[in-house]
């Protein structure tokens, strides 16, 4: 069963580390005049706030770039990865406490043809959103969508009450202390074919 996500429920007024595993199996939908695209979320990563998480964009405080992370929950925080790809997060925690969940991978369950129009007509269904950059491209999430209400007219989110075999690991592609075993905040549905391959490190940090 699915339940529409809302700020009034208080579910997202919590740390991203608590919220992240509960997003597994949830459905994020982007609504447009061309049709809806719905993603079943299968992989996420949690990032915390100022002074708490060296892998987070908010570790050193608020900037114009990361201000959405400090805003109210259930909004999208978007950013460029390596200056090439857009990544999308769902903001958590009460306003003023930066916390967000990175959407790393999922399965397109509605609007497959439209997602293929964004990604390529011959891309396999399992690969349409298998990775954070592929995910945003398949769903046509752009940098300008930063701050968008996930419970609004363009985006909606439904939480799932289904039980999953949840796998965990350190975060993928994060170098330095934020990618260490002290931050095992990557969560995924174990055995799901749409989960992205694990990458131990990258030459640059999120922040």
Structure in words:
The protein is mostly beta strands and 207 residues long. 9% of the residues lie in helices and 27% in strands. It is built from 3 helices and 9 strands. Strands 1, 2, 3, 4, 5, 6, 7, 8 and 9 form a 9-stranded antiparallel β-sheet that branches. The chain is globular and about 45 Å long. The termini are far apart. Mean pLDDT is 93; it is low at 202-207.
| Radius of gyration over all CA atoms, rounded | 16 Å
Order of helices and strands: EHEEEEEHHEEE
Number of strands: 9
**Tally of helical runs:** 3
The proportion of residues in beta strands is 25-35%
Mean pLDDT across every amino acid position:
93
Q: How would the global form be characterised?
A: globular
Would you tell me the structural class of the helices and strands?
Answer: mainly beta
Q: Give the terminus-to-terminus CA distance.
A: 37 Å
Largest sheet: 9 strands, antiparallel
Which regions are unreliable across 5 or more consecutive residues at pLDDT < 50? 202-207
Helix fraction bin: under 10%
Question: What would a concise description of this structure say?
Answer:
The chain is mainly beta. It has helices spanning 16-19, 112-119, 132-138, and strands at 2-4, 27-30, 37-47, 76-81, 85-91, 100-110, 155-160, 166-169, 186-189. The termini are far apart.
Defining key terms:
globular; single chain; 3 helices; mainly beta; disordered C terminus
């Amino acid at each position: 069963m699915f339940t529409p996500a809302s700020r009034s429920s208080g579910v997202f007024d919590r740390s991203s580390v608590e919220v992240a595993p509960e997003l597994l199996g949830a459905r994020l939908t982007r609504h447009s005049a061309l049709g809806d695209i719905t993603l079943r979320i299968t992989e996420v990563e949690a990032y915390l706030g100022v002074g708490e998480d060296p892998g987070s964009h908010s570790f050193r405080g608020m900037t114009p770039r990361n201000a959405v992370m400090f805003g109210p929950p259930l909004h999208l925080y978007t950013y460029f990865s390596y200056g090439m790809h857009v990544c999308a997060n769902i903001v958590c925690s009460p306003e003023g406490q930066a916390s967000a969940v990175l959407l790393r991978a999922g399965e397109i369950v509605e609007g497959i043809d439209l997602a293929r129009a964004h990604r390529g007509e011959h891309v396999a269904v399992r690969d349409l959103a298998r990775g954070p950059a592929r995910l945003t491209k398949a769903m046509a999430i752009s940098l300008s969508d930063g701050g968008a209400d996930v419970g609004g007219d363009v985006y909606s989110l439904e939480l799932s009450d289904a039980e999953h075999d949840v796998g965990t690991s350190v975060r993928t592609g994060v170098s330095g202390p934020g990618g260490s075993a002290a931050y095992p905040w990557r969560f995924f549905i174990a055995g799901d074919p749409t989960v992205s391959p694990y990458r131990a490190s990258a030459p640059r940090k999120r922040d």
